[in-house]
Write a structure and sequence with these properties.
single chain, four-stranded antiparallel β-sheet, Phage tail protein, Gly_rich_dom, mainly beta, elongated, 1 helix
Length: about 220
């Protein structure tokens, strides 16, 4: 990969962590070349809200951000055990609309913003930290699309997360949850929102971010 290409040519051994673990320094090794990536943020859920004009508006959730990469040469002591922390992918945000009943017993919608996705976890080795990506914000009223007519569904797609060299970001779509990220350290897609004048529907959830990694070469 690109980070490995930057390592000195004599680094012929490496250990690749995709989950938390322990690195035991081999005999004769006094420094290691570390490449790491934080976990991707989860996508935000779609949401609705009512406006002063009496209409309900829907807005898709934002995509999660990619985890940050970090490269460093780190001094170590042969024979020592060092903990390795791999940043987890952030969980998705739930859709923000809940059903309710009016005094006549007809089901109506209650406007509510979507929940934000959870930030991705940090990847850590000794004093080197690769920060996780931020979770996507939940859908709110800023993207305004009023209902088109009685009992007609309107939906706004959630946001698409960026794709990097290490992982593919999740995507958003209308009438759908955001998709989960794949690979390493990518953000989840945003969840869609959906509206109807007399049908209670929840906003869709975002997608989950993907975990990062830690690669140690010597």
């Amino acid at each position: 990969d690109k980070a490995s290409a930057a390592a000195p040519a004599n680094h012929s051994h490496y250990q690749f962590f995709t989950a938390n673990g322990t690195f035991t320094v081999p005999d004769g090794v006094t420094q290691v070349f570390v490449e790491m990536l934080g976990g991707g943020g989860g996508g935000g859920g779609g949401g609705h809200t009512s406006n002063t004009d009496g209409l309900l508006y829907c807005s898709g959730g934002n995509a999660g951000k990619s985890g940050e990469p970090e490269i460093a040469i780190v001094p170590v002591i042969a024979g020592n055990n060092y903990p390795v922390t791999v940043g987890a992918g952030g969980a998705s945000g739930a859709g923000g609309v809940l059903p309710n009943s009016n005094p006549t017993g007809n089901v109506v919608q209650v406007g509510q913003a979507g929940n934000s996705g959870i930030n991705g976890g940090n990847s850590i080795f000794i004093d080197v930290v690769a920060n996780g990506g931020a979770g996507g914000a939940g859908g709110i009223v800023q993207s305004r699309i009023p209902l088109s007519g009685f009992n007609q569904l309107d939906s706004i797609s959630g946001g698409n997360a960026e794709t990097t060299f290490f992982g593919k970001g999740g995507t958003g779509a209308v009438l759908s949850n955001g998709s989960n990220a794949s690979g390493y350290g990518a953000g989840g897609g945003g969840g869609a929102s959906v509206n109807s004048l007399n049908i209670a529907l929840s906003g869709y959830a975002g997608g989950r971010g993907s975990s990062g990694f830690v690669k140690i070469s010597w």
